[in-house]
Amino acid sequence: MQKSVEEAVQRRVLEVFKDVCGQRGQTVDPLPDTTIGALGLESLQLVEVVFELESCYQVQVDEEQLAQLESVADVIEMFSDALQRASQQMAPQQEATV
Question: Is 40 inside a domain boundary?
Fold first, then answer.
């Protein structure tokens, strides 16, 4: 099941990068190994990508991690990890209410 979550996160992250780049007039088809620099995104656009994904998944990521993001794969990993942590935090709460 974890693999399907990661695949879904990957698809969504790639879509968001494509949309943000498209808003800047760029036609790109990013891949996980594409670097942030190769996409020509400024820090504000990267924040826009992260904000969109936080809204989509209802999770918060550590803002300090943004400076360390070098590739699309880093963003995929960051959100996969955030979703995994969120699901682990919810599991004990669900058990307590049963």
Answer: yes
pTM (predicted TM-score) = 0.85
- Distance of alpha carbon 7 from alpha carbon 25, whole angstroms: 27
**CATH number reported for the structural domain that contains residue 8 in this entry:** 1.10.1200.10
Tally of domains in the chain: 1
Q: What does the radius of gyration of the chain's CA atoms come to, in whole angstroms?
A: 15
Across 48-77, b (16+ Cβ under 10 Å) vs e yields bbbebbeeebebebeeeebeebebbbbbbb
| Model confidence pLDDT, tens digit, residues 24-77 | 788 888 999 999 999 988 888 999 999 999 999 999 888 888 889 999 999 999
The residue written with tokens 């209802």 in the block is 58
